[in-house]
Amino acid sequence: MLPTMKITVVSGSHRESSQSEKVARFCEAELKRQGVESEVLSLGRNPLPLWDEGVWGDDPKWISVWGPISKTLKASDGFVIVSPEWSGMVPAGLKNFLLLCDSTEVGHKPAMLVAVSSGIGGSYPIAELRSSSYKNNRIVYVPDHVIVREAESVLGGDQPASDRDAEIRKRLHYSLSMLIEYSRAFTAVRASGRINLKEFPYGM
Ligand SMILES: Cc1cc2nc3c(=O)[nH]c(=O)nc-3n(C[C@H](O)[C@H](O)[C@H](O)COP(=O)(O)O)c2cc1C
Question: Is residue 137 part of a domain?
């Protein structure tokens, strides 16, 4: 049991009822089974306004909307970012969320990417998130990612419904166990005293 370790799972679909949230809840339960604290931040039930400059100041709108999320992110040691593939893209709401995240909240913390497709897609959101989305907030995507294809037919109940369902559960179990180890290891990076956000607030 690692009582102080917390991994937050972000469900990036802004549909009210989504496969991404189902996958996120599975990850949350699996993380708890592996002995860490976990919670789901779902963009489905928590649509955020589009980023504006007020977030840099003390705009009451942002204090009430982003304040509680910021607190959760700061208290987290690692993240799972679940993104559906929508028209070959990451949904705009998830990109907006990542734009709102700053380095005091997610910087130098590991994150595992999970893509979700009702068909055989899912690789585009992984490529998109790996090629952008981390530069200024300094979130660190770990090498293993998971693509949940034909999502409606897997991760539904307590027991696997098919061999493919069993395989994806095994993959998530393994990849999340690796994320826990990265989350543990990265606390040393943040405690090193090397992070210099004053001189280097933005990535290149
Ligand atoms: C606007 C929209 C566009 C979509 N485009 C794609 C796509 O390009 N590729 C794909 O594999 N699935 C696509 N899908 C289907 C999703 O994979 C499917 O809805 C899946 O359940 C994941 O999305 P969800 O988390 O919102 O449920 C699309 C769904 C929506 C709502």
Answer: yes
Residue 134, token pair as written in the block:
């981390």
Q: What is the pLDDT of residues 68-115, one digit of tens each?
A: 999 999 999 999 999 999 999 999 999 999 999 999 999 999 999 999
Distance 11 CA to ligand 1 centre (A): 14
Residue whose CA lies nearest to ligand 1 atom number 25 = 20
Q: Which atom of ligand 1 is nearest to the CA of 122?
A: 11
- Per-residue confidence at 3, pLDDT binned at 50, 70, 90? low
For the Cβ of 11 lying below 6 angstroms from any atom of ligand 1, the answer is no
For position 140, what pLDDT does the model report? 98
Q: Does ligand 1 come within 6 angstroms of the Cβ of 88?
A: yes
Residue 78, helix vs strand vs coil = strand
Domain of 93 in residue numbering reads as 6-190
Which band of pLDDT confidence, cut at 50, 70 and 90, is reported for residue 47?
A: confident
Number of domains in the chain: 1
Kindly tell me the burial class for residue 39, based on how many C-beta atoms sit within 10 Å of its own C-beta (0-12, 13-18, 19 or more).
middle
Q: Whose CA is nearest to atom 4 of ligand 1?
A: 86
Query: Three-class SS string for 118-184?
Result: CCCCCHHHHHHHHHCCCCCCCCEECCCCEEECCHHHCCCCCCCCCHHHHHHHHHHHHHHHHHHHHHH
Which amino acid residue places its CA nearest to atom 3 of ligand 1? 86
Domain CATH number, residue 183: 3.40.50.360
